[in-house]
């Protein structure tokens, strides 16, 4: 049986990419019966009635799955922030990083508009960028004047499924054009969708760009930690996860416990204090969350 990847889902039809051709498929009733919804990004087995139409028979095991946007098997998320208008925020970046790490998605951090930051702010952002590189993240700084810095990001897109996430006005459309100049006609559309209100519903689509597939949809329209438990939060802060192995108590939450290796690392400057502060803030948010029944 032929296999492919769902690149678009619309009005009960699933568009399956198999090599260079796209087959319009319907889902079998078995999916509804088992309460399984095929998602964009799913690797599937299908049966072709002809070279344009067919039926989905099987959904392969997913690596990950997002609710908003509804997409599966995402390899990486480009987290786009601007140096200015809107101003760069480590708190918002850390919130995005938690959500990405919790879903086993590789984050790539891109800070745009560096030429507009001003000398003092530019130096501060470069120091932050170095902090995140020390943790192990890819961080890229780009300029609006000539698009400098974007060329370093392009190799990441090869053979990957990528979602973009970030606030409105951070320069996602410019970044997309730099990745794939042929996207120019679609960019305004994509950009509008990336910054749209979270209550609008719209289909998700994977488009070819940079040698891979990019989701034409906003990434992580919900920034709440609904699926993350208190004891799992530390694993989404990579440097905290690394140090926690040396904590005296198993299951240490790194707040009030004695002989905590994470708190010692913060005191010694091995973990940035603002990262630890965000961890404590997010932990409190998770603990205060209302239970869902």
TrEMBL record:
It is an enzyme of class 3 (hydrolase). One of its GO terms (cellular component) is cytoplasm. Binds 1 zinc ion per subunit. It comes from the Bacteria. Zn(2+) binds at residues 247, 252, 254, 260. Gene3D superfamilies: Nucleic acid-binding proteins, P-loop containing nucleotide triphosphate hydrolases, Probable gtpase engc, domain 3. Its cofactor is Zn(2+). SUPFAM superfamilies: Nucleic acid-binding proteins, P-loop containing nucleoside triphosphate hydrolases. Its main location: cytoplasm. One of its GO terms (molecular function) is GTP binding. It is found in: Cytoplasm. Pfam families: RsgA_GTPase, RsgA_N. Residues 63-223 form the CP-type G domain. Residues 72-221 form the EngC GTPase domain. GTP binds at residues 112-115, 166-174. Keywords: Cytoplasm, GTP-binding, Hydrolase, Metal-binding, Nucleotide-binding, Ribosome biogenesis, RNA-binding, rRNA-binding, Zinc. Monomer. Associates with 30S ribosomal subunit, binds 16S rRNA. Belongs to the TRAFAC class YlqF/YawG GTPase family. RsgA subfamily. PANTHER family: SMALL RIBOSOMAL SUBUNIT BIOGENESIS GTPASE RSGA (PTHR32120), SMALL RIBOSOMAL SUBUNIT BIOGENESIS GTPASE RSGA 1, MITOCHONDRIAL-RELATED (PTHR32120:SF11). This is Small ribosomal subunit biogenesis GTPase RsgA. It comes from Bacillus glycinifermentans.
């Amino acid at each position: 049986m032929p296999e492919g990847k769902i690149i678009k889902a619309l009005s009960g039809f699933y568009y399956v990419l198999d090599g260079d051709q796209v087959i319009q498929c319907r889902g079998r009733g078995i999916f509804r019966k088992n309460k399984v919804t095929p998602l964009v990004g799913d690797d599937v087995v299908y049966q072709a009635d002809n070279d344009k139409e067919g039926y989905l028979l099987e959904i392969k095991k997913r690596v990950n799955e997002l609710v908003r946007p509804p997409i599966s098997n995402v390899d990486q998320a480009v987290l786009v922030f601007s140096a200015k208008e809107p101003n760069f925020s480590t708190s918002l970046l850390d919130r995005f990083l938690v959500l990405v790490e919790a879903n086993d998605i590789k984050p790539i951090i891109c800070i745009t508009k560096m030429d507009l930051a001003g000398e003092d702010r530019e130096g501060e952002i470069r120091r932050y960028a170095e902090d995140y590189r020390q943790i192990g993240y890819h961080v890229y700084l780009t300029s609006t004047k000539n698009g400098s810095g974007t060329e370093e990001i392009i190799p990441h897109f090869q053979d990957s499924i990528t979602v973009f996430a970030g606030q409105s006005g951070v320069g996602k459309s410019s970044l997309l054009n730099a990745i794939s100049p042929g996207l120019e006609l679609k960019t305004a559309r994509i950009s509008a969708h990336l910054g749209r209100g979270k209550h609008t519903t719209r289909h998700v689509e994977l488009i070819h760009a940079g040698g891979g597939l990019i989701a034409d949809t906003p990434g992580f329209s919900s920034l709440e930690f609904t699926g993350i438990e208190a004891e799992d939060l530390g694993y989404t802060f990579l440097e905290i996860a690394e140090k926690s192995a040396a904590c005296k108590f198993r299951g240490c939450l790194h707040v009030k416990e004695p002989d905590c290796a994470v708190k010692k690392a913060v005191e010694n400057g091995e973990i940035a204090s603002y990262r630890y502060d965000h961890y404590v803030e997010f932990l409190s948010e998770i603990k205060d969350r209302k239970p869902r029944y």
